[in-house]
């Protein structure tokens, strides 16, 4: 037997007084009233509201993304030249830094001489061989 009342059954029950008619308009609540209730709530309730609205992650510190050399190159290609102060010396590429402080120093000296990023893998292997022989 179906226990869910059909619309005809509900109308008949309301006519007999068995079921009170339902109001179709919800009570009106303003945003200020809601804000006052939330402000007066305990921290546990506020945390539950944040969780329910998925706002609990908004106060975490944003992770800072490091730019890669390729991203910088793409930006330069898109917007034009990049100018630096005369004493600017960039960090060497990771392939140079992995070879140690000797390779980094040689790379920085070549940069200051105006040679830029010109250390090949052969040059790096020679630097390693020279450092090992010392």
What does this structure look like?
52% of the residues lie in helices and 0% in strands. It is rod-shaped, with a radius of gyration of 36 Å. It has 2 domains: 30-60; 69-133, no CATH class. It has helices spanning 7-16, 31-40, 43-52, 69-79, 94-97, 101-112, 121-133. By secondary structure, the chain is mainly alpha-helical.
The total of helices stands at 7
- Helical residues, percent: 40-55%
Instruction: Note the beta-strand portion.
Output: under 5%
How does the overall form come out from the CA principal axes? rod-shaped
Series of H and E elements = HHHHHHH
Mean pLDDT, rounded to whole units? 75
- Work out the count of structural domains: 2
User: Which blocks of ≥5 consecutive residues have pLDDT under 50?
Assistant: none
Largest sheet descriptor: none
- How far is the N terminus from the C terminus? 97 Å
Question: Cα-atom Rg, whole angstroms?
Answer: 36 Å
Sum this structure up briefly.
The chain is an all-alpha fold and 134 residues long.
Task: Please describe the structure with a list of short key phrases separated by commas or semicolons.
mainly alpha, 134 residues, single chain, 0% strand, 7 helices
Write the layout of secondary structure elements.
Blueprint: H1 7-16, H2 31-40, H3 43-52, H4 69-79, H5 94-97, H6 101-112, H7 121-133
């Amino acid at each position: 037997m179906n226990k869910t009342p059909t619309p005809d059954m509900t109308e008949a029950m309301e006519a007999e007084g068995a079921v009170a008619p339902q109001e179709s308009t919800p009570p009106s609540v303003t945003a200020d009233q809601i804000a006052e209730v939330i402000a007066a709530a305990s921290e546990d309730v506020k945390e539950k509201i944040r969780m329910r609205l998925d706002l609990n992650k908004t106060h975490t510190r944003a992770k800072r993304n490091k730019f890669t050399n390729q991203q910088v190159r793409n930006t330069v290609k898109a917007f034009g030249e990049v100018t630096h102060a005369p004493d600017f010396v960039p960090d060497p590429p990771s392939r140079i830094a992995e070879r140690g402080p000797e390779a980094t120093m040689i790379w920085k000296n070549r940069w200051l001489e105006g040679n830029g990023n010109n250390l090949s893998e052969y040059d790096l292997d020679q630097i390693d061989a020279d450092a090992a022989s010392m």
